[in-house]
Design brief:
The complex is a heterodimer of chains A (about 425) and B (about 250). Chain A is α+β, with helices and mostly antiparallel strands and about 425 residues long. Chain A is about 25% helix and about 35% strand. A five-stranded antiparallel beta sheet of chain A has the order 1-3-7-5-6. In chain A, strand 13 (about 285-295) and strand 14 form a beta hairpin. Helices cover about 70% and strands about 5% of the residues of chain B. Chain B has helices at about 1-10, 15-50, 50-55, 65-75, 75-90, 95-115, 120-125, 130-145, 145-170, 185-190, 215-245, 250-254, and strands at about 175-180, 180-185. In chain B, strands 1-2 form a two-stranded antiparallel ribbon. The radius of gyration of chain B is 23 Å and the shape is globular. Classes of the chains: A alpha+beta (about 425), B mainly alpha (about 250).
C-alpha cells in the first residue's frame, strides 16, 4: 500500500514536471517573440535626457533592397550639464545601432569629417552627422544613430524601422586597393584561410594518429610506474618527431616567403583619433530660466514654469520641446514630418500659455505642458526612480521666418502623484 | 564462502587480449571526453584572455595580438604536457590542445558570429597555433626535458605564431582609400561590418611607445613573447606537477 502511494506520488511529480515543461514550451512558442528594438527604453532616463539630445533626424528611406543604400542624417547637441554620473565625452565614436551587420556602414561623417575615427565632443555644442548604410541581409530592422562614449557606453538616438528586401546571396561589397586590385569584401580571402587551417589540421591529426595508434594510457602508465619509460619512445618516434618539426618549420617559412611575394604592399592596421570641431555656435538670443518643473505621473504630463527672455531682433514663439529623442510639438506652430517615427512624436503634446510671440527685449513667464503617454511608453517616467531628480531637453523657438533658436534646458523636477489640473486653468 | 573468495581474487580479464581490448576502450572513452573538455576549457581561456584580438581581422595587429596570444595560450599546453609526458610519455598534449582550440573557434565563429550575428566568416576567422603546438611537442619528445622545452620549445611556440598566421592575414593588410583615410582592408571590414558594442576607440592595436620603432615592433614583440613564453611554460609545468600530485591517485587504484 505504502509503496503504491510512493509510486503514485512520483508519477504525479513526473507528470506535473512534464506538464510544466510542455506549458513553458508552448508559452515560449505562442507568445510573440519579436525583439522590438535595441533596449533604448531600458536606458535610464538620465542617460537619455542629460547626455546627448538628438534632433533633425531623417531616414532617407525606410525600404531598401540588398546592395541599395540609405542615409541617416541629423544633428545632436552635447548637453552642457552632462550628467555627473557618467564619464564626460572625452572620446566618442559615431556609430549606428543595427542588429548585427545586416546593413553595412559604407560611410559616416561628423560635421563633414570622415567618422571612421573617434573624436572628443565639446559640452554644450552641436554636431551634424550622416551615416550611409547598405542593405545586406533581408529583414525588418530598427535602426538608430548612436554615439559610443568612452567609459560611458552607447547613447542611442531615435530609431525607425527599415526593411531590407531581396536576396542576401546577391550582396556584394566591391572595393579597390591602392595597388589597383578590385576585390569583393563580401567574399574575400576565405579560400586561403580555410586551406591553411585544413593543412595544419591534417598535420595535427597526423601527429596525433601516429601516437594514438600505439597503446595509450594504461599500458604506458604502468610502464612508467615500473621504471620502463625509456622503452616508450623509440628511435623511430624520434625520427618521426624530427620530420614533423622540420616539416612544420619549413611550411611556415615557405608560406611566409610566398606571401611576401604575393602581397608586397601591405600596411599596418590603421587607428587614429581626430578632433572634429563642432558646428559654429549660435548666438544666445533666447535665455530661459526655470522656476519650477513638475511631473504629474497620473496625467503623464510634465509642467514647466519658466521665464523666457528674447534678446534677438525678431519675435519668437515656442514650437517644440525634445528630450530623449521624443518630440512634443506645439500644434499651432509645428506639424510632424510624415517620415518621422510616429511613436516618438506627440503632435499636439506641447501646450504653451500664453501661446503668443515673445517680443524682442521682452521677458515672459511661460507655463508649458508637455503631455503624452510617451512619458510612460518610452519609460521616461522612470525618472522618479533616478537618484538625480533632474530633467533636461531642448526647447526650440521659431521666429516669423522660421529661423530656429535652440535652448538647452536643465532643471530639478518634482513628481506629483495626484491628477493634473486642467491645462487652461493655470495662470502664467 | 570459498566461492566468494575465489571470485574476489580473480582479475577482471581472462586473457591479455581482453585486457588490451578493455584498455583500448578506456583510451577511446578518455579521448572523447578529453577532446570536448579541451575544446571547452582552452576555447574559454582564449576567449577570456585573447578575446577581440582573435575575433576580428582588424584586431590582429603587430604588437598586442602577436604578444598576447602565444604568451597566454602556452599556459594550458605546458601543464597538459607535464601530465601527458610525465605520466604517459605521450608528446601530443600541445598539438591536441591547439587542435581542440581551433575546432572550438571554428564552431563558434561559424555558428555564432556568422550564423547568429551575421558577421562574414572572412572577417572573423580564427588564428591557428597548431604549428606552434606540433613544434612544442616535438621539442619535448626530442629533448625529454621541460627546461629545454621551455627555452627552445617556448621560443619556437611564439616565434612561429606570426608567420603561421601572416599567410592568412597579409591579404587583409592591403591598403585602400576609404573616403580620404588610408585603411587596410581589415580596417575597412571592421568599419563596415557594424559592431555596436565595439566602437573604434576600443580597438587596442599598435598602441604604446613601440610604435617609435617603425617597422621593428613585429620583431620586438615576437622576441618579447618568446621570453614571456619561456617563463610561462615553466610556471605552468609547475601547475601540471601540482595537478598530478593530487589528482592521479585514482589511476593507481585502477
Amino acid at each position: 500500500m505504502h509503496s503504491k502511494r510512493l509510486v503514485w506520488k512520483s508519477s504525479a511529480i513526473g507528470a506535473s514536471a512534464l506538464s510544466f515543461i510542455v506549458a513553458l514550451s508552448m508559452a515560449a512558442a505562442l507568445v510573440p517573440g519579436t525583439a522590438a528594438a535595441h533596449g533604448e527604453r531600458a536606458e535610464p532616463p538620465f542617460l537619455r535626457m542629460s547626455t546627448i539630445q538628438w534632433y533633425d533626424t531623417h531616414w532617407s528611406s525606410t525600404r531598401v533592397k540588398v546592395n541599395e543604400e540609405m542615409t541617416i542624417t541629423g544633428r545632436f547637441h552635447v548637453v552642457k550639464n552632462w550628467s555627473f554620473a557618467i564619464a564626460a565625452p572625452d572620446l566618442a565614436f559615431m556609430n549606428v545601432d543595427v542588429p548585427g551587420p545586416v546593413m553595412l556602414r559604407m560611410a559616416s561623417t561628423i560635421d563633414g569629417v570622415n567618422g571612421a575615427a573617434s573624436t572628443p565632443l565639446e559640452l554644450g555644442r552641436d554636431y551634424e552627422y550622416s551615416i550611409v548604410l547598405r542593405g545586406r541581409i533581408p529583414g525588418r530592422y530598427h535602426i538608430h544613430p548612436m554615439l559610443n562614449v568612452r567609459d560611458a557606453g552607447p547613447l542611442l538616438g531615435p530609431g525607425d524601422w527599415v526593411t531590407v528586401d531581396g536576396d542576401a546571396a546577391a550582396f556584394t561589397d566591391p572595393i579597390t586597393t591602392l595597388t589597383g586590385e578590385k576585390l569583393d569584401l563580401a567574399h574575400y580571402g576565405m579560400s586561403t584561410v580555410v586551406s591553411w587551417h585544413v593543412l595544419w589540421g591534417l598535420m595535427a591529426v597526423g601527429w596525433l594518429l601516429y601516437w594514438i595508434a600505439k597503446p595509450l594510457l594504461m599500458p604506458r602508465y604502468e610502464a612508467i610506474q615500473h621504471g620502463e619509460s625509456e622503452s616508450l619512445v623509440t628511435s623511430t618516434d624520434r625520427i618521426v618527431g624530427v620530420a614533423f618539426l622540420g616539416a612544420t618549420i619549413l611550411l611556415v617559412v615557405f608560406g611566409a616567403m610566398v606571401t611576401r611575394v604575393w602581397y608586397p604592399v601591405t600596411i599596418p592596421l590603421q587607428s587614429t583619433w581626430l578632433r572634429i570641431p563642432p558646428l559654429p555656435k549660435q548666438p544666445d538670443t533666447i535665455t530661459m530660466t526655470p522656476d519650477r518643473v513638475v511631473y504629474y505621473i497620473p496625467g503623464r504630463t510634465v509642467e514647466f514654469w519658466v521665464k523666457v527672455t528674447n534678446n534677438g531682433t525678431k519675435p519668437v514663439r515656442l514650437g517644440e520641446f525634445t528630450t530623449a529623442a521624443v518630440r512634443f510639438l506645439n500644434s499651432s506652430l509645428r506639424q510632424p514630418e510624415p517620415d518621422y517615427p510616429p511613436e516618438l512624436i506627440a503632435p499636439a503634446g506641447l501646450v504653451v500659455e500664453p501661446n503668443e510671440p515673445i517680443q524682442p527685449g521682452e521677458t515672459k513667464a511661460l507655463h508649458i505642458l508637455a503631455s503624452s503617454p510617451i512619458w510612460e511608453t518610452d519609460r521616461l517616467a522612470l525618472l522618479i526612480a533616478d537618484p538625480t531628480s533632474r530633467m533636461g531637453g531642448l526647447f526650440m523657438f521659431f521666429d516669423s521666418d522660421n529661423n530656429r533658436s535652440l535652448v538647452e534646458f536643465d532643471s530639478e523636477i518634482m513628481p506629483t502623484f495626484v491628477q493634473p489640473p486642467a491645462p487652461a486653468t493655470t495662470a502664467s | 564462502m570459498a566461492a566468494g573468495l575465489q571470485a574476489r581474487s580473480r582479475t577482471a580479464f581472462d586473457t591479455p587480449e581482453e585486457m588490451r581490448k578493455a584498455y583500448r576502450q578506456f583510451d577511446l572513452v578518455v579521448a572523447v571526453i578529453l577532446f570536448f573538455l579541451f575544446v571547452g576549457l582552452y576555447h574559454i581561456t582564449a576567449m577570456l584572455t585573447i578575446g577581440d584580438w582573435d575575433f576580428w581581422a582588424d584586431w590582429k595587429d603587430r604588437r598586442w595580438w602577436i604578444t598576447v596570444t602565444p604568451t597566454l595560450l602556452i599556459a594550458m599546453p605546458a601543464a597538459a604536457q607535464y601530465i601527458f609526458w610525465g605520466k604517459f610519455r605521450l608528446p601530443f598534449a600541445a598539438t591536441l590542445l591547439t587542435l581542440c582550440l581551433v575546432s572550438g573557434e571554428w564552431l563558434v565563429r561559424v555558428a555564432n558570429f556568422q550564423g547568429w550575428a551575421y558577421f562574414p566568416i572572412d572577417f572573423v576567422w580564427p588564428a591557428t597555433l597548431i604549428p606552434s603546438g606540433i613544434a612544442l611537442d616535438c621539442v619535448l619528445m626530442l629533448t625529454g626535458s621541460y627546461v629545454m622545452t621551455a627555452i627552445i620549445g617556448g621560443g619556437i611556440w611564439s616565434f612561429l605564431f606570426y608567420p603561421t598566421n601572416w599567410v592568412m592575414l597579409a591579404r587583409y593588410m592591403q591598403p585602400t582609400n576609404m573616403h580620404g583615410f588610408l585603411m587596410s582592408l581589415a580596417d575597412v571590414m571592421g568599419y563596415q561590418f557594424v559592431r555596436t558594442g565595439t566602437p573604434e576607440y576600443l580597438r587596442y592595436i599598435d598602441r604604446g611607445t613601440l610604435r617609435s620603432f617603425g617597422e621593428d615592433p613585429i620583431y620586438i614583440s615576437i622576441f618579447f613573447a618568446m621570453f614571456a613564453c619561456m617563463v610561462i611554460y615553466i610556471v605552468f609545468v609547475g601547475v601540471g606537477y601540482l595537478f598530478t600530485k593530487s589528482q592521479f591517485s585514482w589511476m593507481k587504484r585502477i
